[in-house]
Amino acid sequence: MSELIVPQSEIERQYRIAESLKPVITGKKACVITFGCQQNESDSERIAGALALCGYEITPKSEDADLIIINTCAVREHAEIRALSEAGQFKNRKESDRDLKIGMCGCMVQQSHRRQQIYKSYPYVDFVFGTDMHHRVPEMIETMLTAKKRFSFVSDEPHNEFGVVSEDMPILRESSYKAWVSAMYGCDNFCTYCVVPRARGRERSRSADKILYEVKGLVDQGYKDITLLGQNVNSYKGGCGFAELLDKAASFDGEYRVRFMTSHPKDASSELVDVMAYNPKVAKHFHLPVQSGSDRILKAMNRRYSRAQYIEKALEIKEKVPDAALTTDVICGFPGETDEDFDMTLSLVKEIGFDMIFTFIYSPRKDTPAEKMPQVPRADSNRRFAELSKVENDIAQKINESYIGKTVRVLSDGVNKNGAFCGRSTQNKIVTFDKFIEPGEFADVEITSAGGYALAGIIK
User: Fold this and answer.
1) 320, exposed or middle or buried, with CB in 10 Å at 0-12, 13-18, 19+?
2) Domain annotation covers residue 189
3) Spatial distance between the Cα atoms of 284 and 280, rounded to a whole number of angstroms
4) Domain containing 455 — which CATH number?
5) At 330, which helix (H) or strand (E)?
6) pLDDT score at 1
7) Cis, bond preceding 138 (omega within 30 deg of 0)
8) Are residues 377 and 427 in the same domain?
9) Same domain, 99 and 208
10) Over the stretch 70-117, which tens digit does the pLDDT of each residue have?
């Protein structure tokens, strides 16, 4: 898919545009507001990098900004409503400040019905752009300054330009010690409930050389926690398999960890588990979404694995990497789910014993096959959600209590919003401790107590 790589000449053109904008932009501020997944956070860092290249000062405060860009999510309706509500907050300000510019981007914008809604109901949004257009931010800013009407930078399937991969544009990272590194984009799985293949395009991978060059640069700069990202990261095909890429990314000199997400169970290879087992720099955390424990529902979801195959893979991880945390996603109330189907999910959860479950109530997505299936009453979905949460809370509590008396290596995040000193273990567990440690520094913590979703201890 080399034809989907943005030519270097186009990247150079964007740099020239950015340089020409600096005399006009310098002194102005921009704010990027992010909804959704880690890939969206990574995208926002690229958007911010391009804005800074044009001369903007990046600010976290929208009230100080001359330009506001809202990066949206479309995985669930609630995420879309939140993004639209956020845009609505700026209506009055826009009426009193005509120089304020507002843009929207991301997965929600990639959907034509949402773009139409923005066009009709949010006239104060000046421009929108798609998930494959981040490298053209300088061109958008140039257009924004000269256009007399609203504009759009969005390509729709089946246009062959949808889903481009761009390299060598600047990234303005929010953290000085944690970093997102995109390994691949898009998805070919077409789960019946999901809009990702339509919102982010088909799978395409960055070259291994580009990824490893980026990871080494981050390690050399002192980054300690690096996450390789992809909608289905272990189907990576950028010159090697994902297991080999992960092993190489975790083989540079220095103390750091490499994480990855998200994995699809059908593509989670034994080689990948082996790399986690033997490479000490690969974080001992495997996020493996199951979504349901019922074969009937898994088939309706088009997940392409069975309950037995999932359990076999989960138990392989637990056997080969006994100190690993295993987390998952579960959808409650998928169309057609019966109490018997849900009981199968409960029994799977009890059999495997997850460190954490991210539980969601099914949200219909427009133009997906599941939208047209018989829907489960909301009351039933809510009841199942509550029951699953209670079961998982008890399991998580017991797992975390097993850490009491052990010493874990923690990467400090400084002070949390509650004033506690905190960080994350290699299993990605939240750990609070008794002394301040500079953010981005490692410390050994002896665990003295445990809750369902956090550990606590003392610095050794």
Assistant:
1) middle
2) yes
3) 9
4) 2.40.50.140
5) strand 325-332
6) 43
7) no
8) no
9) no
10) 999 999 889 999 999 999 999 999 999 989 999 999 999 999 999 999
Q: Which two tokens stand for residue 211?
A: 């990824």
Residues 306 and 224 in one domain: yes
Q: Pick the last residue of a domain from 354, 386, 401.
A: 401
Contact at 8 Å (CB) between 302 and 191? yes
Which uninterrupted H or E stretch holds 301?
A: helix 295-301
431, 386: one domain: no
Counting the structural domains of the chain, the total is 3
Q: Is residue 166 part of a domain?
A: no
Confidence check: pLDDT of 372 > 60? yes
Q: What is the DSSP string of 217-244?
A: HHHHTT--EEEEE-TTGGG--SSS-HHH
Cα 228 from Cα 250, distance rounded (Å):
11
Encode pLDDT of 53-65 as tens digits: 999 999 999 999 9
- Judgement on whether residues 393 and 351 belong to the same structural domain of the protein: yes
Instruction: Give the burial class of 253: count Cβ atoms within 10 A of its Cβ; 0-12 exposed, 13-18 middle, 19 or more buried.
Output: exposed
Residue 170 lies in a domain: no
Same domain, 328 and 285: yes
Strands (E), 137-183: 151-153, 178-182
Residue 9 domain flag: yes
* Model confidence band, residue 155 (pLDDT cutoffs 50, 70, 90): confident
Q: Which domain holds residue 195?
A: 178-401
Residues 141 and 256 both lie in one domain: no
Whether the Cβ atoms of residue 326 and residue 315 lie closer than 8 Å to each other: no
What's the pTM value of the predicted model, to 2 decimals?
Answer: 0.95
Same domain membership, residue 307 and residue 248: yes
d(CA 452, CA 355): 9
Residue 22 CB-half CA count within 13 A: 10
DSSP for 342-403? Answer: HHHHHHHHHHH--SEEEEEE----TTSGGGGSPPPPHHHHHHHHHHHHHHHHHHHHHHHHTT
Strand partners, 105: 71, 129
